[in-house]
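FORM 12-B: Structure-to-Sequence Request
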């Protein structure tokens, strides 16, 4: 039987027991899943290891566990993907965070571009979505969520090979992938402006297209991530 997985903030390596003060996790285990004392779960501390833990007691807002085993998580993305995604409508951007985490994106960087529909992001809610998707999909290390950045700032702080996706670019199928780290930029619903495309060219970025079909921003984000991580 597959054990339920939960990320916690405390480090677990070398510990035999652990006491966690987390009312939300307490409620989830006791009231939602209705676990009893003696039930086993997997705890993760964002180290790349998972720890099998047995619940030894429920207290008011506290949980006590006995650590009975550990193993290195095998679900490691084969490439490091920095997804610079322009902010779009709240539910669609959250879908990108959820599904991108499941696919294996390692960094999410929300971008403000000229045609961005949204100008802000609820970072705490976004982190919770990423954590829950990581627990569900079997990841051992949480993707990193960066603060919202303007496109100019993102480009000035980014080195190495940059790939921007635009309808005007060369076909992705003709692009030769090199290396294991990719920094990909996905525009908003209205696409990149001519000024922004010039910024990419000045940065010597590769400008690629996913084909003749016009994809929504959230679809493009997931399609690119899947092509880089699942093939």
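FORM 12-B RESPONSE
SEQUENCE OUT:
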């Amino acid at each position: 039987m597959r054990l339920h997985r939960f990320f916690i903030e405390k480090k677990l390596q070398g510990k035999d027991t652990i006491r966690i003060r987390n009312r939300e996790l307490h409620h989830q285990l006791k009231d939602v899943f209705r676990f009893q004392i003696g039930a086993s779960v997997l705890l993760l501390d964002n180290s790349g290891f998972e720890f099998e833990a047995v619940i030894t007691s429920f207290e008011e807002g506290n949980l006590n566990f006995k650590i009975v085993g550990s193993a290195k998580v095998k679900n490691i993305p084969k490439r490091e993907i920095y997804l610079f995604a322009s902010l779009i409508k709240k539910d669609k951007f959250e879908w990108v965070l959820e599904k991108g985490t499941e696919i294996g994106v390692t960094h999410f960087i929300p971008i403000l571009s000229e045609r961005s529909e949204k100008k802000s992001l609820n970072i705490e809610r976004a982190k919770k979505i990423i954590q829950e998707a990581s627990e569900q999909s079997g990841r051992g290390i949480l993707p990193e969520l960066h603060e919202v950045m303007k496109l100019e700032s993102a480009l000035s702080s980014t080195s190495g090979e940059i790939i921007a996706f635009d309808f005007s670019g060369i076909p992705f199928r003709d692009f030769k992938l090199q290396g294991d780290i990719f920094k990909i930029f996905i525009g908003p619903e209205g696409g990149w402006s001519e000024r922004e495309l010039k910024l990419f060219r000045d940065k010597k970025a590769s400008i690629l297209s996913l084909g003749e079909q016009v994809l929504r921003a959230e679809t493009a984000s997931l399609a690119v991530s899947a092509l880089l991580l699942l093939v």
